[in-house]
Design brief:
mainly alpha, 165 residues
């Protein structure tokens, strides 16, 4: 069963707010303070991606393709500490970090789970657990692969039914 997509206007407004806040705080030299705004911007970007590319086949194909690429290239997170104010990494308390791309894909997968009528009660907590684990390990895990597993594994039957329809 396909659910009604979340409205685009609030997502676009969240992206604009996140972008403006990030730019303002970065310009003021407050990079760590910009982290929540950067996370908002990345999450809104992921939701917008999911809205534009909402075909049922993509919900299965994209996570599988990205996991294959990540595992084939041996990627699994940054190999050196992030510099202060790194635009592609969220600085978290305790010196931990999380790549923005991981947040983008987590948000896209969560939006797809909502729109495609997948098991949100299982999928969303699984995505959040992956984000927490990746942040705790400073990104030294195959984050995109684990996010894909968190989306596909509990919903494989529904994704297969969506492909057949």
């Amino acid at each position: 069963m396909r659910r009604r997509p979340l409205a685009l206007v609030p997502v676009v407004l969240a992206a604009l707010a996140g972008g403006l806040l990030t730019g303002t705080l970065d310009a003021g030299g407050l990079q760590l303070g910009a982290t929540p705004a950067e996370a908002l911007l990345a999450a809104a970007g992921g939701v917008l991606f999911a809205r534009v590319f909402s075909a049922a086949a993509l919900v299965l194909a994209v996570p599988v393709l990205l996991a294959g690429l990540e595992l084939a290239t041996g990627a699994g997170g940054p190999t050196s500490p992030a510099a202060g104010g790194d635009a592609l990494t969220l600085g978290l308390p305790g010196g931990h970090r999380l790549e923005l791309l991981v947040v983008v894909w987590a948000a896209a997968y969560a939006a797809w789970a909502h729109d495609a009528g997948l098991r949100r009660g299982v999928t969303w907590p699984a995505l959040a657990a992956v984000l927490l684990a990746v942040a705790a390990r400073d990104g030294n895990l195959p984050a995109v692969t684990l996010l894909g597993v968190a989306l596909v594994a509990p919903n494989l039957d529904r994704l297969a039914a969506g492909l057949r329809a």
